[in-house]
Amino acid sequence: MRIPMTCCLCPFLVCLCFIQRCYGASHHVPTKVPSKNQTKLANGETEVHHRPKRGWIWNQFFVLEEHIGPDAQYVGKLHSNSDKGDGSVRYILSGEGAGTIFIIDEVTGDIHATKSLDRERKAHYVLHAQALDRNTEEALEPKSEFIIKVQDINDNAPKFPDGPFEATVPEMSEVGTSVLQVTATDSDDPTYGNSAKIVYSILQGQPYFSVDPKTGIIRTALPNMDREAREHYTVVIQAKDMAGQVGGLSGSTTINITLTDVNDNPPKFPQKNYQVLVLESAEVGTPVGKLKANDDDLGTNADIKYTIINSEGANMFSIATNRDTKEGIVSLKKPLNYERKKTYTLHIEGLNTHADPRFTYLGPFKDTATLKISVGDVDEAPVFSMDYYILDVYENSPSGTEVGTVTARDPDGDNKPVRYELDGKEEEESYFRIDAKSGVIRTTQPLDREDTPWHNITVVASEVGNPVLFSHVPVTVQVLDTNDNPPEVAADEEVIVCESSRPGQVIQTVRAVDKDDFANGQRFSFALPSQLPVNPNFTLKDNEDSTASIIARRRRFSHLTQELYELPIVVWDGGEPSLTGTSTLTLRVCPCQRHGRIRMCQGEAFLSSAGLSTGALIAILLCIIILLAIVVLFITLRRSKKEPLIISEEDIRENVVTYDDEGGGEEDTEAFDIVALRNPAAAEELKFRRDIRPEARSQCGFAHDRGSLV
């Protein structure tokens, strides 16, 4: 408890007052010069103005918190120099807590606290003091402000505001690995004593973990802590104030620490040998077995890749890892055949895919196991000796000619007999038949290569007595060519003979075509029929390259004399046996004009160059004729139209016509009726005709020989 400053200052103030009085009594000034507080009177005397001095005898006050005594706690005393101790001074207190928490003795100025205070709620109070004359209520001292501070005691224990805590640390961590830092708070005054000085200690969790007493950092205390042995730990940390001394307050919190996994365990197969049975009818891609290597680690640390490491197993089977179950799934890679191989041995390796180099000293992170696969026998359909057959037969061969043979056998051990037949769904079946026992295929009718050069059929083989088990094989039959079609001259375009042709001039080169295969039709020869007389107009030259040239033998061809000529040509091929054919060509004579090497008749050339057919030309001519008829009709109607004499109904008296003819005088009075000039309606009725000559003239009056008609 602190002693109020008034108790210490009172003796000092008494000494100061005593020195002042002594000094004033022992010093005399001969000549007084008025000071600022003096006034010189008329009689030579000086009046001294005494300025009141502030005489508050007090300083900052302190009060202990959490006071629980029966009496009010004494805080301090206020005193003014104006107070002579006769009770004439009254002290007044105002401000925070005045009258409720803090009371003052109006006579003595003693201040007391009537309630227990808590520094953590309010650390200080600001109050105002004033000294009054009890009789006049005048202020002896101006109002002054002072502070009462609440002095701290150790009444608050440390707390962990964020607890309890969750923390993780990798397993197998080194000693001293930081896990978590915890921090406690103390509401006491950190600037006064050790009330808020905290020291950390561990109450639970040893010998696995430790805590730094100053920072609160939790660290590992044991090496090689294995998650697979123990995963969870509970650690209790205590925070104690007063620097951990006896009597200090404390608080604690709990930290739940979990060891996280690292890849420190290699995979292990629970057994070294496995066995499975697979039927030979299993389809490719079918899973045939599975096995699993155990790994005590978690997540990616337990990922395993399975591999078949021997060629015997890798050629026939494949293995893949199921990500959900971590199992190795063995699947069939190629078809099985019990009769060829009855067992397979697979050496399978399981390897960690995420090895940690820190733990390689624990050994290789892989393991191996053996899987023996036994192939089960099933009753299978017959198997053909080939996947497909290509046979051939000459065209025009008689019915029953052998085409070829297909062969199938029962792959099972009992080797049952096989029955053959053609697939009845195909149209090609009508051309062939097959022997049910031997598999010999024969024709049922002569075949024509030019009609169908290839035939596709399907042969079905089944076990005798068990038609449910059957297999198919495609058979392609090629019809071979024989020289059974005579050649003929190709008539791709019309042969034109120009009127200007000269003897020896090549009219056109012709070639031959043959429906037979290229092997029998690649060489052709040409000649004119020998049984006919010599043609006086044309001759034929064999070019010995499977073409022939038609040559003119005379000149002066005229399409007016003879437009068409027929020329028979004999052509034979080089096949075995050789065949001969006669073709008759039609030659047209016409006037020609040259367009490069092409000769065309002039009329045909015009039509061809215009790109119009005869029907189109006729349609164009009809359109032109119709247009001409319309024009002629329009002109005729225009000429036959009569023009009116007067085209306006205006008064003729408003029109003046100038002329140069001499008037006839009285003889001309009957040429025109003057009334018609004055009446437009009458003019319409008296239109004179231009086709007849008027016999009489109307009477007309003239003002003079040359003038205007009125």
UniProtKB/TrEMBL annotation:
<dbReference type="GO" id="GO:0005912">
    <property type="term" value="C:adherens junction"/>
</dbReference>
<dbReference type="Pfam" id="PF00028">
    <property type="entry name" value="Cadherin"/>
</dbReference>
<dbReference type="GO" id="GO:0000902">
    <property type="term" value="P:cell morphogenesis"/>
</dbReference>
<feature type="signal peptide">
    <location>
        <begin position="1"/>
        <end position="24"/>
    </location>
</feature>
<dbReference type="InterPro" id="IPR002126">
    <property type="entry name" value="Cadherin-like_dom"/>
</dbReference>
<keyword id="KW-0732">Signal</keyword>
<keyword id="KW-1003">Cell membrane</keyword>
<dbReference type="GO" id="GO:0034332">
    <property type="term" value="P:adherens junction organization"/>
</dbReference>
<dbReference type="GO" id="GO:0045296">
    <property type="term" value="F:cadherin binding"/>
</dbReference>
<dbReference type="GO" id="GO:0008013">
    <property type="term" value="F:beta-catenin binding"/>
</dbReference>
<dbReference type="InterPro" id="IPR015919">
    <property type="entry name" value="Cadherin-like_sf"/>
</dbReference>
<keyword id="KW-0472">Membrane</keyword>
<feature type="domain" description="Cadherin">
    <location>
        <begin position="80"/>
        <end position="160"/>
    </location>
</feature>
<dbReference type="GO" id="GO:0005509">
    <property type="term" value="F:calcium ion binding"/>
</dbReference>
<dbReference type="InterPro" id="IPR020894">
    <property type="entry name" value="Cadherin_CS"/>
</dbReference>
<feature type="domain" description="Cadherin">
    <location>
        <begin position="385"/>
        <end position="489"/>
    </location>
</feature>
<keyword id="KW-1133">Transmembrane helix</keyword>
<dbReference type="GO" id="GO:0016339">
    <property type="term" value="P:calcium-dependent cell-cell adhesion via plasma membrane cell adhesion molecules"/>
</dbReference>
<dbReference type="GO" id="GO:0016477">
    <property type="term" value="P:cell migration"/>
</dbReference>
<keyword id="KW-0677">Repeat</keyword>
<feature type="domain" description="Cadherin">
    <location>
        <begin position="489"/>
        <end position="606"/>
    </location>
</feature>
<keyword id="KW-0325">Glycoprotein</keyword>
<dbReference type="InterPro" id="IPR039808">
    <property type="entry name" value="Cadherin"/>
</dbReference>
<keyword id="KW-0130">Cell adhesion</keyword>
<feature type="domain" description="Cadherin">
    <location>
        <begin position="270"/>
        <end position="384"/>
    </location>
</feature>
<dbReference type="GO" id="GO:0007043">
    <property type="term" value="P:cell-cell junction assembly"/>
</dbReference>
<keyword id="KW-0106">Calcium</keyword>
<dbReference type="GO" id="GO:0044331">
    <property type="term" value="P:cell-cell adhesion mediated by cadherin"/>
</dbReference>
<protein>
    <submittedName>
        <fullName>Cadherin 18</fullName>
    </submittedName>
</protein>
<keyword id="KW-0479">Metal-binding</keyword>
<dbReference type="GO" id="GO:0007156">
    <property type="term" value="P:homophilic cell adhesion via plasma membrane adhesion molecules"/>
</dbReference>
<dbReference type="GO" id="GO:0016342">
    <property type="term" value="C:catenin complex"/>
</dbReference>
<keyword id="KW-0812">Transmembrane</keyword>
<feature type="domain" description="Cadherin">
    <location>
        <begin position="161"/>
        <end position="269"/>
    </location>
</feature>
<feature type="transmembrane region" description="Helical">
    <location>
        <begin position="616"/>
        <end position="637"/>
    </location>
</feature>
